[in-house]
Design goal:
Length: 581
Amino acid sequence: MSEPSAVELKLIDYLSETILISKENLNENWYQGTVKEISFREQLINSGTVKDEAYQQAVAAVIGLAYVETIDDLSPEFQEKFTDQIPIRFTKRHFFFPYRFTESELVFAALYPWPDSVFEEAARALGRHRFSLVLATEENILSAVNQVYDRNTGSAEEAAEVLVDDADLNYLDHFASEETEDLLDAEDEEPIKKLMNSIIFQSVKDGSSDVHIDPGPKDTVVRNRIDGVLHQITKVPKQGHIPLVNRVKVMAGLDISTKSQPQDGRTMILLAGKKIDIRVSIIPTVHGEQAVLRLLNQSQGIIPLKELGMTPKMSKQMDRLVQQPHGIILVTGPTGSGKTTTLYSALNRIDADKKNIVTIEDPVEYRIAKYGQMQVNEKVGVTFSKGLRAMLRQDPDVIMIGEMRDAETAQIAIQSSLTGHLVLSTIHTNDASSTIIRMIDMGIEPYLVSSTVTAVLAQRLVRKICPDCKESYPMSWEELEELELSQAIEKNEYKGVLWQGKGCNTCFQTGYQGRVGIFELLLIEDEIRKRINKVTDATEIRKLAAELGMKGIKFDCAVKVIEGVTTVDEMLRVTITDADM
């Protein structure tokens, strides 16, 4: 059996003395690493024995190199030279990055100081004969690599320009249906693939939720949706439309020969190490096939309830609601208003170690290891209602239904609640009060609705004012009253100004950056239960709820306007009716 090298023996001694870990433990880790055929460093980190920072500091001390905690930005000139000459795959494979790169000096920050041949090859590519090394952590090196190649990835506009003079746009290679390589790693110079990669890259970087590929009579317009509003990315020549849509189809595993029928698919890509789930929808139009790509960043994680935009009082009410043993909690709002995000934020308040949480969705947008998640697939007969029936045999405590689409699903949800399950779901209505009437219209008896539904949360998303170009402007109390904003603040507290975004490069000259939720929470209390059993008019329920203290969506938005979170224009765009006040 092999033995630790001289350097490894010194490293074991050093770690034992400085971190107070027994040599027996360190030797056992070294042995386990050889059995698993991984490095001593990887074994120590994977086992939780040593953190990467401590290990790198120890190696630096043993072999006489400096350890650096941060890696500074390169100058634009040397950054471009480095990214042109050294492929990202090479830097990621060998874990190194220029720590200093000037006319007279080349210093690499490295994870492993060996073998020398790696750094010699990189130095030659950069036109240098000498180099030196410092050590850094894997996280810092990869962060620097991703950041610098991010900056030097061409825009979709630049990629589209290549197509104007491309003579062979009808050629489409046979690509794999599952895109697994990191887009920043892509070295393929094929125009269509490069264009599609650039579109997705730019859209993810801009924080887009969707990409639209819209054919026209003369060219194809590519747009992305940022904070709920579409912005044009580029235009593609008419002859490039079919290859571009075919590229989308191949990525999503769809049939490129089918041109006259709608198709739906999905794929997953990597971008700077982050997983991006892409849902694809393609429909035939008079000018050709139109494609929409929904981008779901799997790396973002679940947003806590208090960060969605809820008031502290409403957040506490939601906390109490999801802790109840049974009942139905519904979230309503238009498509793209963040309903699924709210449901997962609510589910996250439940201890998944003590309760069995199952979900059925179309598709699964957040993948959570502790939940049992089922995806609707109507092609093989897995509908919401059938999947829900199967889930009830899994002994669930909490059931999340992606959308209550039909009477059958609603009936099963009602029965599930009556048999001791907590059910969370979404439904499409204009406001919280209308949701009750919608369920009755779906064929549910009023007494079943009143006895099972415990709360309805209605929500919308409004754009937030960009913090980099935020500015105040005067508005009188009389103008505030005309806009129905005065109910959100006492007159003696109003300072006579509201806020807006002037427009800057950070926010693409829109004056907005990011979005926040506006909400109304209808709690089904005894008085409202009695009213549900007597009426079929949402207006009466809304009036009673207001008397009992419910604040409407427009009121919540008005508060955010007064506080300088959003603007009057956003309130008028998103909240249409006056009844919400």
